[in-house]
Write a structure and sequence with these properties.
The chain is an alpha+beta fold. The protein contains 14 helices and 19 strands. It has a five-stranded antiparallel beta sheet with strand order 3-1-7-6-5, sandwiched between helices. Strands 9-8-12-11-10 form a five-stranded antiparallel beta sheet. Strands 14-16-17-19-18 form a five-stranded mixed beta sheet. Helix 10 runs antiparallel to helix 11 and helix 12 packs parallel to helix 13.
């Protein structure tokens, strides 16, 4: 994040950025005037388009409005006749049948009591409507209602039902229902609107779809606004709005009342049909002219600055970066075709690079020579120590006294450990560090081969994690490991003859700055007190040198020595990882060196 911020700050200081900013300020008034005028015209055009959409929606639902208002008026007109013939169901039914036969708009007319029973209707017989949705809606909220039924309770056909409550004074007696077929309402929609580009449907105040411009309502949900119910659109009556449809298409919607408070019409239009596409194009073109003027000015200015200054500066910057990341094959060439000031700068850098290349070659040769000499010293020290160990081994062979042999063997192990350290030093790629895990593993293998013969029945486990140490720490750590492993081999045993003795050595990190060495062995019935002597004193001395403290634990048939010490100058190297070079001007994406 900090690097990105620095890159942005550096970019804003560039000559090209500053020149572009000045030109932008110069053409800003002209661009603002053009944008304001075009946006004003687009708003007027948008308002006209909204009014046109509301008019088209109202026009599409005009026939349905007339039918619904006629049905409401008919239901009101039937009220006095029903009140007069309520006690004579046959006479009341004759009135209803006569109405249906004389009028092609209606397929059913009837009066339903509050108990849901209909004795007065255009269909012969007594009908129980108490289980119908329309009756339940009226019972919950008595009042004028327009609803739909895809399986008419009396006619068995898809119908739209208009319900008017019937009162005698203030007493509610029931309701008068007049039904019209769905096909009749659909036929009243204006021809040509029922396409994918424009869809019209009507719904009541409870969100129930009354009719649509197509047969079947399977695809109605696809053109409705996503995440919005139909009742929530009542607050947007006589308005237009833009939203995403359930099909994922961006559409324009318009809502107009068909029968205020009861039925509403919803228009769903795609952008091209609604005229919004033209508005968007007009708004986008409002920015074209000032953008063209701005781009042309920047292009001319940038071309001039680039030819004279920027390309030479970038070439010089590329030379500096290549030189900084290690390209020392030859001094960078002088920019001969650049302006005098930049050519002088390039000549100065050329001279500086030539001097640095010469000095670095001399320093590299000196470092290589010193490295070879230091490795040779480590090699000779290792050879001398191995020679001393061999002499001690020869002396051991000619001595018959067991205690003297044991003492000389201990000395030989210590000398061999030192020889192993120096062997690792001159074989290491980096002379400033030692692989402690590899060093301790070599010492253990060497002592095991020398002290544990075949068939001894001693099991040795090692768990050594990778750890790099400075030579000043590696030497006392390896010597301490030698003494501890020697004691573990010497005193390893078991109480049960059926179980083989064992020795475990582990090395691991304990946090970011500490490491732990553990040497553990099984013990039998012999006392460990006999083992305290020079080895214990050496272990304590080496632990002090490592600024750690050796802890001893005995129990459960085992003896454990644990040393926790601080790791100084700890670092891990990966052979495939290259050193990171931080430049004063970090390379940006797309830049070339």
């Amino acid at each position: 994040m900090l690097r990105r911020l620095l890159d942005k700050l550096e970019f804003t200081k560039g000559l090209g950025f500053r020149l572009g900013g000045l030109l932008s300020v110069a053409i800003l008034p002209i661009g603002l005037i053009s944008v304001i005028q075009t946006l004003h015209l687009s708003r007027e055009y948008e308002r006209s388009s909204e009014i046109a959409l509301l008019g088209r929606t109202a026009t599409a639902a005009a026939g349905e409005r007339a039918l619904l208002q006629s049905a409401l008026g008919t239901a009101d007109a039937l009220g006095p006749a029903v009140l007069e013939t309520m006690d004579r169901p046959q006479a009341c039914s004759d009135i209803m049948r006569g109405l249906v036969q004389r009028t092609v708009n209606f397929v059913y007319a009837g009066f339903t009591r509050l108990d849901g029973v209909t004795e007065c209707s255009s269909v012969r017989g007594v009908h129980d409507l108490s289980g119908e949705t329309s009756f339940q809606q009226f019972s919950e909220s008595p009042g004028t209602l327009v609803t739909t039924s895809y399986d008419g309770p009396v006619t068995g056909k898809p119908v739209v039902v208009v319900i008017q409550p019937l009162y005698r004074g203030v007493e509610l007696l029931g309701f008068i229902a007049v039904s019209m077929s769905h096909d009749l309402l659909r036929s009243t929609h204006v021809s040509g609107l029922g396409t994918d580009d424009a869809r019209i449907l009507t719904f009541n105040n409870q969100g129930e779809v009354i009719s649509s411009d197509r047969e079947g309502n399977g695809d109605i949900a696809q053109v409705l606004p996503r995440g919005k119910s139909l009742p929530s659109l009542l607050s947007r009556s006589e308005t237009t709005f833009r939203d995403i449809s359930n099909s994922g298409e961006r559409r324009v919607f318009s809502v107009v009342p068909v029968v205020p408070g009861l039925v509403y019409a919803l228009g769903s239009w795609n952008r091209s049909e609604s005229g919004i596409t033209g508005i968007d194009i007009t708004r986008r073109t409002a920015l074209i002219l000032p953008l063209i003027l701005w781009a042309a000015s920047l292009a001319v200015a940038y071309f001039a600055v680039y030819r004279l200054v920027l390309r030479h500066i970038r070439e010089l910057r590329g030379q500096m970066r290549r030189f900084a990341i290690g390209d020392r094959s030859a001094p960078p060439p002088v920019l001969a075709d650049a302006p005098a000031e930049i050519e002088d700068m390039s000549q100065t850098f050329h001279n500086m690079a030539r001097i640095l290349i010469r000095d670095e070659e001399a320093m590299e040769a000196a470092v290589n020579e010193k490295t070879v000499l230091l490795k040779e010293v480590h090699h000779r020290v290792k050879n001398n120590l191995q020679l001393i160990a061999s002499i001690i081994n020869m002396q051991i062979r000619v001595i018959d006294h067991d205690d003297a042999k044991r003492v000389l063997r201990s000395v030989q192990d210590r000398v061999a450990s030192l020889a192993t350290i120096y062997r690792n030093l001159y074989q290491a790629e980096h002379l400033d560090s030692v692989q402690a895990d590899r060093l301790i593993r070599d010492i253990i293998n060497q002592m095991t081969n020398a002290s544990v013969g075949p068939g001894a029945g001693l099991r040795i486990d090692t768990r050594l994690e990778p750890l790099e140490l400075m030579p000043d720490q590696a030497v006392p750590l390896s010597l301490l490991a030698t003494e501890a492993f020697t004691n573990a081999l010497k005193y390893s045993g078991v109480s049960d003859p059926d179980v083989e003795p064992w020795v475990r050595v582990s090395l691991r990190m304990d946090g970011p700055r500490h490491a732990v060495l553990e040497v553990e062995n099984s013990i039998g019935g012999s006392s460990l007190a006999e083992g305290t002597g020079l080895g214990s004193q050496l272990i304590e001395a080496f632990a002090t040198q490592l600024e750690g403290e050796a802890e001893l634990e005995t129990g459960d048939g085992r003896f454990l020595l644990r040393l926790r010490f601080r790791v100084e100058n700890l670092h891990k190297r990966d052979g495939a990882e290259m050193p990171q070079v931080v430049l004063t001007s970090a390379a940006r994406p797309g830049s070339r060196h």
